[in-house]
């Protein structure tokens, strides 16, 4: 497996692959890889002969006071995991190369895709995400890129950017990978104390309670959201940041569910912020 660091290398790699008739898949990550990330690499491998994993803790998607400085990192372990999954290249650029002092462009998605959920709670976050993903697409020139349903709003934003800017990349969304007790895998789970970790499966249980109401015929958002919220209340260390029902396409708030919806939750355990979501009906991915 190649380890690429300079901005010129991944494009050269992709063009050499395509000259041989090989498709190139991309899996963007911030590293500290877990089984969720590895499932994306496997999905990319199914769709492309060559797979490039990017590892970049993107400073522009972190707000002031967020965890940029303490975000967990272990390059050697990540390199070994990528290689074991059959990735062909790991691209890990430096922040000073991605964002030289002269860098002044932001890709900004406006409207309901970014006005609610994490977009409301983390101002500037999705502009940072859209900017770095656009740059990674331009640098790596993939045919297909794989993202996780875990970050459902991110996936929706990236699909919009790709369509609006006519980027020649197919976007694939892969299902959420969970621990045995239901907690969605996340690099941030390592922040949790043993007590917080024990209570963290409450996110998934709250979404399951909502899905059960939905299956029973309930279509009023307020009723479903309140039931899910009260579930979170059973975990004394959990503080709800948001619990919102939105249209699965536009991410605009919905009062009565008439089409596919997304129930998304963000919860603080101490300083650690966890997110999770389910589609209603619960049929997998966006
Ligand atoms: P991150 O390194 O957290 O920025 O995530 C990189 C990619 O992995 C994103 O597309 C995430 O949605 C995806 N991802 C993170 N956690 C999971 C998970 N538990 N299951 C599936 N995909 C995930």
Kindly describe this structure.
With 286 residues, this protein is an alpha/beta fold. The chain folds into 2 domains: 2-174, Rossmann fold; 187-277, Pantoate--beta-alanine Ligase, Chain: A,domain 2. It has 11 helices and 9 strands. The protein has helices at 9-19, 35-47, 75-85, 95-98, 112-115, 117-121, 125-140, 152-164, 194-199, 202-215, 221-232, and strands spanning 2-4, 24-29, 50-55, 89-91, 144-148, 170-174, 238-247, 261-269, 272-280. The strands form 2 sheets. The protein has a 6-stranded parallel β-sheet with strand order 1-4-3-2-5-6, with helices on both faces. It has a 3-stranded antiparallel β-sheet with strand order 7-8-9. Helix 7 (125-140) packs across helix 8 (152-164) and helix 10 (202-215) packs antiparallel against helix 11. It is globular, with a radius of gyration of 19 Å. The mean pLDDT is 98. Adenosine monophosphate (AMP) binds next to helix 2 and strand 5.
């Amino acid at each position: 497996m190649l380890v690429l660091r300079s901005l010129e290398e991944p494009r050269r790699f992709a063009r050499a692959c395509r000259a041989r008739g090989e498709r190139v898949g991309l899996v963007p990550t911030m590293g500290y890889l877990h089984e969720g990330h590895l499932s994306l690499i496997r999905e990319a491998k199914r769709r492309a002969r060559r797979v490039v994993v990017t590892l970049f803790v993107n400073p522009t998607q972190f707000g002031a006071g967020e965890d940029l400085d303490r975000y967990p990192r272990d390059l050697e372990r990540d390199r070994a995991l990528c290689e074991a999954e059959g990735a062909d290249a790991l691209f890990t650029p430096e922040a000073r190369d991605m964002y030289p002092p002269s860098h002044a462009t932001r890709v900004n998605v406006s409207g309901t895709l970014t006005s609610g959920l994490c977009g409301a709670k983390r101002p500037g976050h999705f502009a940072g995400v859209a900017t770095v993903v656009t740059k990674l697409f331009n640098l790596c020139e993939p045919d297909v890129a794989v993202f996780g349903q875990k970050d459902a709003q991110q996936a929706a934003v990236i699909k919009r950017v790709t369509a609006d800017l006519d980027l020649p990349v197919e976007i694939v969304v892969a299902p959420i990978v969970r621990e045995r007790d239901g907690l969605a895998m996340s690099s941030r789970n390592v922040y949790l104390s043993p007590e917080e970790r024990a209570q963290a499966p409450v996110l998934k249980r709250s979404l399951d309670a909502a899905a059960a109401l939905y299956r029973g015929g309930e279509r009023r958002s307020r009723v479903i959201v309140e039931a899910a919220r009260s579930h979170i209340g059973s975990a004394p260390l959990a503080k709800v940041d948001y619990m919102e029902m939105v249209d699965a396409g536009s991410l605009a708030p919905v009062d009565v569910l008439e089409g596919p919806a997304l129930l998304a939750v963000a919860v603080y355990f101490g300083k650690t912020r966890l997110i999770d979501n389910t589609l209603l009906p619960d049929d997998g991915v966006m």
